[in-house]
Specification:
407 residues, Cytochrome-c3 Hydrogenase, chain B, 8 strands
Length: 407
Amino acid sequence: MKKNRVQIPIGPIHPALKEPIQIEVELKGEHVENVSITLGHVHRGIEWIGLRRNPVQTLALAERVCGICNIVHPLAFCTAIENAANIKVPERAEYLRVIYAELERIHSHLLFLGVAAHELGFDSILHYTWLVREKVLDVIEYLTGNRITKAILMIGGVRRDITEKQMPKVREALEYYEKVYKKLCDVFLDDPTINARTRDIGVLTKKQALQLCAVGPTARASGIKKDIRQDFPYAAYADLDVEAITPDVLLNEIRGDTFDRVVVRVLEIKQSLELIDRCLKEMPDGPILYEPMLQRLLVQLRQVAGEGVALVEAPRGELIHYIRMEKSEAPLAWKIRAPTYANLSSIVPMLEGCELADVPIVVASIDPCIACANRAIIADKNAVLDQEKLHALSVNKTRALLKGGSK
């Protein structure tokens, strides 16, 4: 560390972080000069477990990769399996998948806005935003039976339909959000204090976003019109003409700062409301499952030999699931690339030059999901640490620390 520099560790356990991640910032005075990020604190081995179960059992694991994005993860998993097995999803099920995914996007973006307000010190706004969020959670529970892990998706379609009797409840929620949307805009886009704390803070230029392969609202806030729903439509999105939202739609300019990332998510809430409304009006009749008989589906999946890739636009950005099947009970390979993993590198240029007090809101502005991002790979199968080796490493580490060393 250079002279006149102070190194501050933030995390893995810290009040400003929703989940465990370690961010070390090097300060000169109050300004950040260098940043390093360490993942790995909540790796759960979900992919490894999934390779020891059949695809229908693994679907429940895919839903638990993330507590917020538990429609898009199983959706990506199902789509990858369907691509590998050449399964044709019924058209009505494709529209239902869009409705569930967009309800989740509203819920996720409202959660983000509350967290952003909390990081700025406005807990009254946090409470208001999360109060508003209750309505979409109530609708999700009404349609699926659960507020969080919905268990609504199935390989080849969805488990339950939205009936004519349920439609009014969904439309009531859409009308509710149409009414509160203006207040959300007033609170987050017109408040001078929020503007002062987010404008020109945590800037990510378009060039940097392209070089670092940023995705989702993080990329769009920097002026990159990239959205899987637009570029590689899945489910029923090809019928809905989705356009990637960038901040210039509202502001007539793009700065790529924290404020722009808030703007994109606020505008996407409105977009999701419109997409759900269109789906309710245009959704065709018909079946909702490719194969209602579970045993027949499992028999067919055991005969699959090939691979499937699915790209889905999660609330945080591009989500990828890769599946390989080799005529076996369980998948041969399953890999997940979550949007947070792609966006974490963007934190470094965002933080450089910021003040220490800006670190929480800048990190929160990419809406990180660390549980999604934590992935592991075995680089050396012979590098097995037994209890004796781990104890020896711990002793050596303690001795080094006592001597003032770093290793």
